[in-house]
Design brief:
Blueprint lengths: L6 E12 L8 E8 L2 E6 L4 E7 L4 E4 L1 E3 L7 H4 L4 H5 L2 E5 L19 H9 L4 H10 L5 H7 L8 E3 L2 E2 H9 L1 H4 L6 H17 L3 E3 L25 H14 L2 E4 L6 H8 L4 H4 L4 E7 L7 H13 L7 E6 L4 E6 L10 H7 L6 H8 L2 H12 L7 H7 L15 E4 L10 H14 L6 H8 L7 H12 L4 E7 L3 H8 L4 E3 L16 H10 L3 H11 L1 H7 L14 E4 L1 H6 L6 E6 L4 E6 L5 E6 L2 E5 L2 E2 L15 H15 L1
Parallel strand pairs: 1-4, 1-5, 6-7, 7-8, 9-10, 10-11, 11-12, 12-13, 13-17
Antiparallel strand pairs: 1-2, 2-3, 5-18, 14-16, 15-16, 18-21, 19-20, 21-22, 22-23
Length: 637
Amino acid sequence: MDGFSKPVHDTVIRNALVFDGSGGPPCQQDVAIRDGRIVDIGQQVGAGREEVDAAGQWLLPGLLDIHTHFDLEVELAPGLPEAVRHGTTTAIMSNCSLGLAYGNQRRDGADPIVDCFARVENVPKHTLAKVAEAVHWRDSASYLQHFDDLALGPNVAAMIPHSMLRIEVMGLRDSISRDPTEDELQRMEALLEKGMQEGYIGFSTDGLPFHYLANQPNVRKQIPTQFAPYAELKRLTAIVRRWGRVWQATPPKDNTIAVFRNFLLTSGRLFGRPLKVTAVAAIDLATNRSIVRLGLLLSRLLNLRLLKGQFRLQALPARFKIWSDGVITPIAEEIPELRRLNECDLEDRVSRRRILDDPDYVRAFRAMWYHGRRGWSVARLKHWLRLDDNVLSRDLSDMTIDESPVAEWQGESMQQVRNALLRWQERGEGARSSAEAEAFRSFPPQPDAADFFLHLLRRFDTDLRWWTVSANRDLAMVERLAFHPRLLPGFNDSGAHLTNMAFYDGNLRMLKMAQRKGLARVSHAVHRLTREPAEFFGIDAGCLDVGARADLVLIDPHALSRWEPEATVEYVWRDAFAHRQLVNRPVGVVRRVFINGHCAFVDGHYTPDHGKVRMGRLLRSHDHEQRAVSRAAACAA
């Protein structure tokens, strides 16, 4: 027992380089865990029933994932394995106005969970239906209570989701077709007030204009929060302000005045007390270089002493790499011509083909594809200046084929494939396989880029899987945003976009960025990923102190330095979803994960208890938990 006679602790982690989350310098120390808490830190902490030699490793507080949609997965696979694998011990859910606080809300033929989540978060309808069937609660208090019965992996914290709040009060149909009455507004206020009393950490809304419902007859209607007038937002956020909780939002990006007006609600100068606001997102779009500059300017203005705001845009510490199955992709929803194809169910190839064969649609598609790229116009000038309105670049060189019935195309850009097609059409030879020759024979003669892309969609539909990096191509800018003091790192969108994104590793990528500049930078990164967001969201997490909950992560810095994030993306089958999922699985970087003192992950493997025994817990707002402790103490006295 290394010189210690009798175990006094459950676990002792020895010889680690300890980062406590404060941002101060690390120190080589031992850490003792007993009954789920850190009970001692130092050089002589006593013996443990389990002794972990962590020489050469970093010991950090458990990492926070501040922007997730794990509300869905936690009902089907409460261990949240992809989060745990990356050292996440606390996940913030119910972002972007969507969540399960009021149950499945299946009334009057509506199916809100499926309708709201399917296109916005790109989750298959059959998976969502499985979640809706598992729901057994009907109110916000019962929702929080049900987490006591789940074998949670990480801790979770929830917000009141605005779309579901509107549906609860108005019904789905009315929530997307009219303004609320005064009685309905008061009912929304009462339910939000109730949620704050119950310990929800905040309130989430959404303003991105390309977030649409997925079920007929609503496929051309945006999700309910989009229909809320400013007066409604002002009244509801006033409740959040009074409780000192967080408003999570996405901006109405096509209306600059509305963006500033909405986010001015953060001002303590104008409204008596600052409102904590975190918004999506500070991101460097490849097609529009002004967006990130405007975001930084907005953050600077709203946080001026003059306004007394507490405003934090979220930043993604990674290249914004998005996969697409045919045209099924989040960025397609922004473009009306592509959105029309997304209105069809995932499996409905017949309807998509009918649209693609329509001559009027083809003309509209071609006009969209070449808008601002031909002739002389304001749109052409904006394209030249990299100030486009849309995220998709419409450049075949930016689109790389990942999976295809023609094996030779995998790993090639669509422009490379088109070039090969044009050579084959000119010479009548040069195909690399019979499959490629057959595919080439199906194309029209000498197709331009638009016709080439249209033909790929007609022939292969979702069998053609491709990716593009639509933002954050400049890694120096990515690092600048991740460490910017007025931003919060963590727009990972974990638990959403099952086949389109794999940013579960966002926190580890930030640590890797920091590692190149030394331990002081690493310590700063740890603070940004743990204690800083925990304090902003008002939850008990993110620190490595005596008395703190034992949420801890061991990182191998040598494996971290060798890790190539783009090389560890996988496309795997998940039984819980009955569907494939895009994941990122670094090898050897995260050595161990402790959640409330339970070891959940060791050297690439989950422990036998993970997903079977409750490790994490529901985290309510810190002030709510403090009041609960005070009440308990008063009762005991």
